Amino acid sequence: MITWYWYALNVAEAVHQAQKQRRQEEGEQCLADLQARVDTILAVLCQKEEPITLAAVNWALGF
Fold it and tell me: In the list 25, 41, 45, 47, which could disulfide-bond 60, CB 3.0-4.6 Å?
């Protein structure tokens, strides 16, 4: 129903573009956060001189 108002006010396209941009930025931020977490985990594993395995990284990430 709100979208009707957007079209009536001729702002629907701008709203859709803003939503698309926000989703893209959120996705990029999520990937950047994950990369930072993985980098930290790898640094810790290297300091401990432990073998670096996918299982160890997954466990450290909480999966």
Answer: 41
- Tell which residue, 31, 10, 27, has the closest CA to residue 19: 27
Q: What is the value of pTM for the model shown?
A: 0.70
DSSP 23-63: HHHHHHHHHHHHHHHHHHHHHHHHHTT----HHHHHHHHT-
Amino acid at 31: L
Long-range contacts formed by 34-43: CB under 8 A, 24+ apart: 37/61
